[in-house]
Amino acid sequence: MTRVQLVEISKQYGSTLAVDGVNADIAEGEFVTLLGPSGCGKTTTLRMVAGLVEPTAGQIRFDGQVVNNVPPHKRNIGLAFQSHALFPHLSVYRNIAFGLEVKGSPKADIQNRVREMLEMIELTHHADRMPSQLSGGQQQRVALARMLATDPRVLLFDEPLSALDRNLRDTLKYSILDLQRRTKKTAIYVTHDQSEAFAISDRIFVMNEGRIEQAGTQLDIYLRPHTEFVAGFVGDNNAIPAEVEGVVPSLPGEPRLLDVRAAGMRLRGSDPGNIRVGDRVLVFVRPENIDVLDAASAVDEPNVVHGRIEQIVFEGPTVRVLVDASGVLIKVTSSGLGRLTLLDKERRDVMLRLQDVTVVRDDAAVAA
Amino acid sequence: MTHAPAEVAIEYEIADAQERKRFASPKLRGFMLLAPAVVVAILFSIIPLAYLFQVSLTQDSSFFFTAEYTADNYREVFTRYRSAIVETVYLASVSSVLDLVFGYPFAYILIRKIRYREFVRTMMTFPLFGPLYLAFGLFYILLPNGPLGPLFEMLGINIARYLFSTGAVLFSMAVFTFPFMVMNIGAALSNVDPMLEEAARTLGAKPWQTFTRVLFPLSWSGIVAGFLMCFGWNLGVFAQPQLLGSPKEQAVLSIQMFTKGLVQFNYGLAAALGILLMAMAFAVTWASLRFSRGALGA
Amino acid sequence: MAVAAASAPRIENRSGGFSLRWLGNALAHGYVWAWLAIFALPFMATLAYSLRTPDGIWTLSAYQYVFGSFKENLLLSVQTTVITIVINLLISVPAAYAIVRYPLPGKSFILSALNLSLYTPAAVMGVSLVIAYAFLFRIPQTMTGLIAAYVVGTFPLMLVPVIVALRDLPMVFEEAARTLGATRMQTFWRVELPLLGPGISAGILLTFVIIFNEFLVTLFIAGPSTTTAALRVYNLTRTAGFQPSTAALATTMQLVSFVVVLLFFRFFGSRYLKGTYLI
């Protein structure tokens, strides 16, 4: 149960800035995921928390205490590696006992603790095996037991499942979540896999180019992206260039809504903040949040636009439809029984109802 | 939250101070770890060699009494000992060429066709136990009533003719350095995908063309490295001419150095010969490191 | 008819090609075995010579000298070899660690300087040391001098395999140990050293093979009381001629060396010897 704070931490390698002023406040017992593409600085950030990399600037605090100069072996953290990093020359038992042995714990205590850990990962009968004699999933479970054996204050995960196959990944990610929930330890988890991040996190920090682009719950990240990067990186999305025409009056506490014009369409979307009338923006709408309606059902309400189906791809559980709406190509994903009725509508005129529309400032247009 | 923050803070501060004191600078720690090796190299390699150079600039053993610096020794080396230099380079070149000619097919077969490679490698360590035993064993074989005498008699070869001959010296030199050649060419060949040979053949290349146009260019670096390594070792040859050679082969630089320095106590001349031999060996090493692009390149 | 005529030569061709390939393979293997015979032949001849009196009687009597008058030389060889290996370990392992794991300026220059003695011909090293020992360090013909020469000549052979092994060792093991609470020293002793085992044994093997059989540098710097077994073999060929007893000593030296090599290959294979003096 430790609160972890990152205050303006940066890491510079030569002339490249790997991490650029990251701020984060992670509550006791919270499970936070750093999500981002490779090279975004998420692993470097995690390794700074572990003490394996020294920040160029900024502070790392555990429960308010600055730990920048505390070497890794005194930070009392647990780190799970991409490869399991089990010591190949030690048995499963000795691997789990390692952290306690180097601390000089009494033999009897070590024995009890290791047995407890082995029971937890259900590998009691494999104590004397060498790591190379275990399957990939077993190895990663031993690695988790080894990391928990010393009762660390903070759990750190550096893409621990990326080397495993998909089925194993799915089961193990819930085991990790379960372990964290039971031990109530603060956890920081690094991954580039959004489904992993969405499945296990309390909060997700989306990182890009050394910065945290957005921190929030799964719903925030998915439905209310603050930046173009977040909207594009997480899930599939339609990005429609537009210009802001007006602000819809709203009550305090309600999300601010904007009226925008994109090609021939008038759309209305929520604004994460500070966009003004006349700004160039991108309108984001998820393919699965678009309904395909009959052309005849034309109604004059916001976010219902006219279009023509260009292409239909049947993918089994879903149908992907490409619709030309006033010259803008819009991706639509349809599931459920209704999707089958779409199959014979190629080259037909339809109406689209767009839901959960988000407006984000168009950085490229601003730069240009 | 169960930890009392104040306690934790103290613990960290102590840890911090200790850590700072002990691991003040990684650079300093690195140099401390490196120091013993550096001291040994300076004391017993660099200083003696520098001293050798100084001695080489004095006459006879005058360095130890009244040193007068002169280049006379080098003048002598390049006039009276020119034939010794030629003989040394000749023996080293010919034996290295033999290694290349016989070693290339050996390396190719070893890499492409043989599954008992570990066994071959083990057997190849025999010559590496040293040229002394090798020359010694060959001496027995070449003796008139040697163990293989009946076999040679049957084949009608007068084997004793080869004792104390250039041939025996070259053969023993080539056998000693053979593993170095095979090792270097083998390393280069094992990086050549067999598929390239197959591709060449399916494109209509004859075996000889496959060799000259595909294999040879791709293993060139190994050939150069192997040749220079064999050449470098053979420049310092001592035991083989001493045991198996005629006075002509016994003129090689290493033996001359031993005779001048430890028999005739002409330290100045021995040192000059040594500096020359070292310069030649270093030139070869430098060239081979350039070609192998620094196998270790720290 | 036409089909049969067309297929008959094809079958013939195939069997012809097969036997040609078989012949090629047989020649290739034969070539390699011929060379292996050449490698082993000098040893076999020495062995045969050591087992026969000049009158052609087979006997082990020559070996009584090995543990008789040559015993001291053998003991000295074993002693100097063991001490050299220990010193090599003590200076090479930390040096390799510094070179691979620490940010030092001019690393490749330092490595070249350390490897200098490896490229120096033995006779040059011998003559430079005999002069330096006599007039600079004042340790002529001593065991100290002998060991110093062996150390400087062979510690690079220990350094190189350890550097290779250390580079191959992923950092994660070190990092895992550190995050589990191990100090730097604990990490080294409990994790890195055991994992470097094969690399270090390769260094030990190389040092052993070279030092145990070294005679040339020794010839320059050894005295009557510091004559190693290998040097004794050389001296005997110069003074006593070619006696079965000399052959017995040479055979013993090679046998011991070969057994050590076999044991190493059995346990570690040849992987860590790549890029070094041996294969």
Structure write-up:
Chain A has 368 residues and is of the alpha+beta class. Chain A contains 10 helices and 20 strands. Chain A has 2 domains: 4-223, P-loop containing nucleotide triphosphate hydrolases (Rossmann fold); 236-294 and 301-367, OB fold (Dihydrolipoamide Acetyltransferase, E2P), CATH 2.40.50.100. In chain A, helix 2 packs across helix 3, helix 2 (92-103) packs parallel to helix 4 and helix 3 (107-120) crosses helix 4 (136-149). Chain B is mostly helical and 298 residues long. In chain B, 74% of the residues lie in helices and 0% in strands. In chain B, helix 2 crosses helix 15 (267-291). The model of chain B is unreliable at 1-23 and 294-298 (pLDDT under 50). With 279 residues, chain C is an all-alpha fold. Chain C folds into 2 domains: 1-50; 65-273, MetI-like fold, CATH 1.10.3720. Helix content of chain C is 79%, strand content 0%. Chain C is built from 11 helices and no strands. Residues 1-13 of chain C have low confidence and may be disordered. Classes of the chains: A alpha+beta (368), B mainly alpha (298), C mainly alpha (279). Chains in contact: A-B, A-C, B-C. Chains B and C meet through helix 2, helix 4, helix 5, helix 6 and helix 7 of B and helix 1, helix 3, helix 4, helix 5 and helix 6 of C.
